[in-house]
Amino acid sequence: MEKITTVTGTAAPLRRSNVDTDQIIPAVFLKRVTKTGFDDALFYAWRQDPDFVLNRPEYQGVKVLIAGPDFGTGSSREHAVWALRDFGFDVVISSRFGDIFRGNSGKQGLLAAQVAYEDVERLWEVVEADPGIAVTVDLVERTVTVGSLKVPFEIDDYTRWRLLEGLDDIGLTLRDEAAIAEFESHRESWRPKTLPIREPAESGSL
Amino acid sequence: MNATSTNAAPAEDAVPATERPRTLAEKVWNAHLVAKGEDGTPDLIYIDLHLVHEVTSPQAFDGLRMAGRPVRRPDLTIATEDHNTPTLDIDKPIADLTSRTQIETLRRNAAEFGIRLHSLGDKEQGIVHVVGPQLGLTQPGITVVCGDSHTSTHGAFGAMAFGIGTSEVEHVLATQTLPLKPFKTMAINVEGTLRPGVTAKDIILAVIAKIGTGGGQGYVLEYRGSAIRALSMDGRMTICNMSIEAGARAGMVAPDATTYAYLEGRDHAPSGADWDAAVAYWKTLATDEGAEFDAEVFIDADTLEPFVTWGTNPGQGVSLSDTVPDPASIDDQHERAAAERALEYMALEPGTPLKDIAVDAVFMGSCTNSRIEDLRAFASIIKGKQKADGVRVMVVPGSARVRLEAEAEGLDKVFTDFGAEWRFAGCSMCLGMNPDQLAPGERCASTSNRNFEGRQGKGGRTHLVSPLVAAATAIRGTLSSPWDLQAEGEER
């Protein structure tokens, strides 16, 4: 994963709340077995509308999405994060994120910046008044700056550290391999196991 | 979150942590601590059971291959095909090429990494959240994850169960652990007795309407109270299943005699002395007297009515006897804007009685409501009747086993005599990624869990309901509950 410290680019305002992951990427696009190539699928249904914000000429090439509350609720599909990344987004700003979506973002280097709702509204106003304006998201300072407006954002310390360092989660965990093996050594024997396969006691019971 | 009360944090370590009363969620969490996080780092939590399906796993297996990592515990991992599998002609090659590729990829990955897989046509195939419990793999006090947000279902057994993304799927395959921050806890107290015709589905739809789709974010919900204790395991699974629709990653019910009776004798449940040891442990899991929750919600079961959603998020629900709300009457500006959009998408007018809404389709299935009791409940209402003209009715069992069980009881005949389609097991019309989909503009009463725009097919309109409401709706052609059938019978 690449290190992130600051992101500077233009932003698109998405004035909608409760943007669930089915809206970010409909299930029909989840059949692929790759991690890339999902840019066309992003907001597929909404993008059929020529007036949808991401179709408008003034919002081409944006890197920051500024959305209403409860962004990324619903399904666990990480494809939602991949689609946002593939489309070119480095940052999503919202006043509240779905838990799984926020976790998935942190794993894929998409910065999910939680900003107070009043500040989201101020960001929308500034960006809508001047769509080409540069927005700077500073992960070190945890701030979003656009023109003369500077607002703070929240992100948990651990995710921030991993994004700043570009660290791989699995590699980090495997440093604790001894602790995992130790834990396994006194796990109760009756805890469920999928293997070997046990057949039904009475084969005729179905 | 004005519907909940937030308790003050307990006094800092006034009592040693080991003696402080604990919640069910805390106990399960603490029993799975591999390493305690320090200075803001997350805890490392051991995962007892990892469920895998075709949609969220291919990129995870790819990641393992690229890093040259094995699956650490194939014996704690099980895979099934469910999301994009067809529910007809299952003996033929899957017609949709990308679906077929994804299924074939899972089969190759399972073979390469030594993972147990139940493929289409196998008698243990089915929706991942139906398969785990029926095999006896889902047990109290364990941790369960799956690349699917409805993993919360397994919390019905007193397990800590939650959905994860594909990166986390890879992480669990490689390490059998996950780095996680502790959740906050919320008690959902449901006291009283449900009236006949009111079910577990109505409880959870009412909970979501009360706390909202974001109300549970960051929490594990524990469903408590006399109405929960009175539910069967199938009912408890329906409730825990939709915890995610309230924004919570996990929902739990403390194990009790109902739980043990469900598990005893199942293929992978403990037996003999192991059974006794397991039950003795399970009995220690219930939330201690005096344990504090971070938030509490109260629902009165006595007055609950059959519930239905009118909008495009699961929090947009009301009693079936109610009318479509007027967005103008909603104070919160986001809720109001969301309601306006929802009514436009759903093609509904404020003030319309829900019961006047005619449907084109009824879907009986999904990980929320496709277990044998759900099928029995649906059958009990439609038996000997005919479906409404022009309404398409699909009944889709949650697993091949449920299908066989239903057929052994003759339920399949009840469904087909009624005019319903009786399908093979899978996620089917819940999520619009297999052939079972709504056409644009079609309206459906669905026992599934999400009424998002396009969820059941592009342009499809979903009303979430219980199996009993689905059955009564299939008979009358308009959103209805068994109470309406009764009233109709009395009028005659």
UniProtKB/TrEMBL annotation, chain A:
What keywords tag this UniProt record?
A: Amino-acid biosynthesis, Branched-chain amino acid biosynthesis, Leucine biosynthesis, Lyase
Keyword match Amino-acid biosynthesis: yes
Gene Ontology, cellular component aspect:
3-isopropylmalate dehydratase complex
NCBIfam families hit by this protein: leuD, PRK01641.1
Q: What's a BP term from Gene Ontology annotated to this protein?
A: L-leucine biosynthetic process
- Give the record's pathway: Amino-acid biosynthesis; L-leucine biosynthesis; L-leucine from 3-methyl-2-oxobutanoate: step 2/4
Q: What does this protein do?
A: Catalyzes the isomerization between 2-isopropylmalate and 3-isopropylmalate, via the formation of 2-isopropylmaleate.
Its protein name is 3-isopropylmalate dehydratase small subunit
E.C. number: 4.2.1.33
Q: Which GO terms describe its molecular function?
A: 3-isopropylmalate dehydratase activity
Q: Which gene encodes it?
A: leuD
Family assignment? Belongs to the LeuD family. LeuD type 1 subfamily.
Q: Where's the Aconitase A/isopropylmalate dehydratase small subunit swivel domain? A: 1-114
Q: Which reaction does it catalyse?
A: (2R,3S)-3-isopropylmalate = (2S)-2-isopropylmalate
| Classification via CDD domains | IPMI_Swivel
Record text on subunit structure and interactions: Heterodimer of LeuC and LeuD.
Under Pfam families, the record lists: Aconitase_C (PF00694)
